[in-house]
Amino acid sequence: MRGRRTPTTSGTVLVTGGGSGIGAGLAGAFHARGRQVVVAGQTRERVEAVASRHPGMEAEVVDVSEADQVAALAERLVERHPDLDTVISNAGVQRLFDFTGLGPLDAAELGREVDVNLKGVIHVANTFLPHLQNRPGSRLVNVGSGLGYVPLTAAPVYSATKAAVHSFTVSLRRQLQGSTVQVVELIPPAVVTDLHRHLDRQPPRAMQLDAFVTAAMAGLDAGRDEIVVGLAKALQVFQRLAPGVGLNIVNRPD
Ligand SMILES: NC(=O)c1ccc[n+]([C@@H]2O[C@H](COP(=O)([O-])OP(=O)(O)OC[C@H]3O[C@@H](n4cnc5c(N)ncnc54)[C@H](OP(=O)(O)O)[C@@H]3O)[C@@H](O)[C@H]2O)c1
């Protein structure tokens, strides 16, 4: 059936941004099912701490915004785990930017989210797809966001990168239809994680991480192409039917 595929159940799983939050949660869920899991992230202590909580899990250090580092990671992993068949492109950062100030914002700061959230997803896809296309039943899972449907205006670059990840994923899926690779987009609502460390509190109505991971794994088990979780479904509907209403709801002060 279109939009669904039979899920893989055996090969090695790579999770970028696996040192915390959603990545660590998904890594733990795959590990609990007996899969070999590798968590990769930019801070060694964080990925090693996650791996040490799960016997047999491996940790790798990578900055996904650096194409050379992603290529080196792929070389190491494919040699060590030729059965790698699931790549979860989850690493991401979120910052707030106010463009109403008198001076220009720091260009390097502005570019960082594009480098990690968008270029990182592109580098991971570009680097791992040749291998995945030789693995029957393989999957590339890009992590988008409900904010890709309706932006959080205080996080304008973040929201734009997630809209771009959605578009990129749609294109990849179409290019790879008929191949061995299922291209999946996992679209979370607000979830309680460190992503919001720059805020003084978690977003209102944020989903608990465990509940999110359970829903995401159910979507993966069902073989869905787009896994839209919790309130992200409402944002998808608002984008289609009443974008102005969605914008007001996402950005209302609570
Ligand atoms: N939480 C939410 O409300 C929510 C909602 C929608 C979508 N998402 C998406 O879900 C994904 C995971 O976020 P999260 O909520 O779990 O937040 P998180 O706990 O902050 O996780 C993000 C992870 O990405 C890693 N990372 C950041 N920059 C990296 C880079 N250049 N290279 C490799 N790893 C990097 C971080 O590692 P370090 O700590 O070492 O930097 C961190 O472990 C992100 O793509 C995010 O946009 C989250």
Give an overview in words.
The structure is a single chain. Helix 7 packs antiparallel against helix 8. The chain is α/β, with parallel strands linked by helices. Helix 6 links the parallel strand 6 (181-187) and strand 7. A 7-stranded parallel sheet has the order 3-2-1-4-5-6-7, with helices on both faces. The chain has 8 helices and 7 strands, in the order βαβαβαβαβαβαβαα. The chain has helices at 21-32, 44-52, 67-80, 107-132, 156-175, 209-221, 232-241, 243-250; strands spanning 13-16, 37-41, 58-61, 86-89, 138-143, 181-187, 226-228. It has a single domain (13-250), classed as 3-Layer(aba) Sandwich (Rossmann fold). It binds NADP nicotinamide-adenine-dinucleotide phosphate. NADP nicotinamide-adenine-dinucleotide phosphate is lined by residues 16-17, 19-23, 41-43, 46, 62-65, 90-93, 116, 120, 143, 145, 188, 190-191, 193-195. NADP nicotinamide-adenine-dinucleotide phosphate (NAP) binds next to helix 1 and helix 4.
